[in-house]
Amino acid sequence: MGSRLCHDAMKRDIDDTIDRMREGDDLRVQSFKDIGPNIVTALQRVKRIHSKGGYAVDAKGRRTDRTDDLLSMMLDDFPKMRKGLTPKQAAINGRRGRKPKERMPADQAAAFWFDKDILTNARALKFMTGWSAPMAHRQWPGGSGRPTNKGARPRRKRK
Question: How far apart (Å, rounded) are the C-alpha atoms in residues 85 and 101?
Fold first, then answer.
């Protein structure tokens, strides 16, 4: 196993290093993350390394991408790779780039909101999946019909 490019990958651009590989050279990297910023790019570069007749070698664990070690290399470094959605998926999901929260339909939520056995609005909201207090008050402006504590006498301060 040739390791002519042991430290060269860290000093120069990885694509340039792969282009300069010769038949039988192995590319030694500190981690799979060094091959590419995300899984797709890393796997494309691994394919280019294989087309040159070489392999990527993990310098720490002495693992190569020849066998199941490729999967373990990927799983070890997957949390360090770039996270997030692709721009296309983010555009599909909306402005903030995430899927909207699932919300209970209004007729089902109304059953909890107007249930007199539930003592407080906060407790009712616990049963109403995806609903918040402002959303409930906008949906039903008259309120829930529960007694409030607004008319209670203020507590006496201890001396």
Answer: 17
Q: What is the pLDDT of residues 52-94, one digit of tens each?
A: 888 887 776 567 776 667 777 777 777 667 666 667 767 777 7
pTM exceeds 0.70: no
Q: Which fold has domain 8-80?
A: Rossmann fold (3.40.50)
Give the pLDDT confidence of 12-21 residue by residue, as tens digits. 678 888 888 8
Residue type at 20 in one-letter notation: R
Triad 129, 145, 148: Cα angle to 5°: 100
The 3-state DSSP class for residue 57 equals strand
* 3-class DSSP state of 43: helix
- In whole angstroms, give the CA distance from residue 128 to residue 113: 8
**Domain map (residue ranges) of the chain:** 8-80, 106-139
Pairing of strands 63-64, 56-58: antiparallel
